Amino acid sequence: MSPDDAPRVEHDAQIEAMFDRVAPRYDFLNRVLSLGNDIGWRRRAVASARLGDGERALDIGTGTGDLAFDLLGASDPTSRVAGVDLSTAMLERARHRAARRGLAARYETARADGQRLPYPNASFDRVVASFTVRNFGDLGAGLREMRRVLRPGGRAVILELSTPRNPLVRATYRAYFGGLVPRLAVLLGGDRDAYRYLPRSVAAFPSPERLAALLREAGFARVRFERLTLGAATLHVAET
Ligand SMILES: C[S@@+](CC[C@H](N)C(=O)[O-])C[C@H]1O[C@@H](n2cnc3c(N)ncnc32)[C@H](O)[C@@H]1O
Q1: Ligand 1 atom with minimal separation from the 19 CA
Q2: Which of 86, 134, 198 to mutate to test the pocket of ligand 1 (most atoms within 8 A of CB)?
Q3: Which ligand 1 atom minimizes the distance to the CA of 12?
Q4: Structure confidence at residue 7 (pLDDT)
Q5: Ligand 1 centre and the CA of 62: distance in Å?
Q6: CA-CA distance, 204 to 71, in Å (whole number)?
Q7: What would you measure as the largest C-alpha separation in the chain, in angstroms?
Q8: Domain coordinates of the chain in residue numbers?
Q9: pLDDT at 1
Q10: What is the distance between the alpha carbons of residues 26 and 88, in angstroms, rounded to a whole number?
Q11: Smallest Cα–Cα separation from 56: which of 82, 85, 94, 84?
């Protein structure tokens, strides 16, 4: 590790510890605090990432597996997903949930950092990530890794929370995520710091236009994005 890596390593350690703490309540709080919207947003992502016969996707920041399971359910039965995450507690839940859904044979997990993936070049047909890249200490490195592990003609699908453009919607959104969500999360048994981090991380994340530019800089082509639910989330799709 070079001294330049130290801030990223420290950041990643904090993210890992935070998601380890959040894991037991993650699914419940996710559903409640996103007002159920996360389900429809993941469905939109899946519609751009469906896998054909024998195809394979990498789900970066797979968490408890929601995106991976939706993708497997919408794809050819011979397709598979590899899910990576920094948090072992999230991965443990993902593995249990995969077994309960009868998906264990099509879903493998590994503890790995999305900014330094342990896979060879061009090893996946799709790379997907929902609500993960906002947590990267080095976003450029994460996007370059996505590009590297995709085969030629492969596709990256990134779903992320975003800040609405309309001032009225933005003010409501900020009051909700910045004010109500951290309080509600604590009331519902969640981790106060994690749900304070959430609005800060969304505010600090690049705009959809900027993320599209960063994807192009990382070597992607045909980059496009779609704002969902008045801009509360954004779906980016990019090809290799
Ligand atoms: C908000 S959760 C999203 C989980 C899941 N994708 C979903 O849609 O519910 C973000 C996940 O990304 C993981 N994560 C954050 N930074 C990461 C990194 N650098 N490499 C791999 N996983 C990371 C976290 O541990 C967490 O499980």
Answers
A1: 25
A2: 86
A3: 19
A4: 80
A5: 6
A6: 29
A7: 48
A8: 3-239
A9: 58
A10: 14
A11: 82
Low-confidence residues of the chain: pLDDT under 70: 1-3
pLDDT at residue 2, rounded to an integer: 64
> What pTM value is reported for the model?
0.94
Cβ of residue 198 lying under 6 Å from some atom of ligand 1:
no
Cα 196 to Cα 19: distance, rounded to the nearest angstrom = 13
Determine the Cα–Cα distance for residues 66 and 192; give it in Å rounded to an integer: 23
Rg (CA), the chain: 17
Tell me which amino acid residue 18 is: M
Helix (H) or strand (E) holding 125: strand 124-130
215 Cβ closer than 6 Å to some ligand 1 atom = no
CB 83 within 8 A of CB 108: yes
Burial class from Cβ neighbours inside 10 Å (0-12, 13-18, 19+) for residue 105 reads exposed
Identify the CATH number of the domain defined by range 3-239. Answer: 3.40.50.150
For residue 80, what are the β-bridge partners?
A: 56
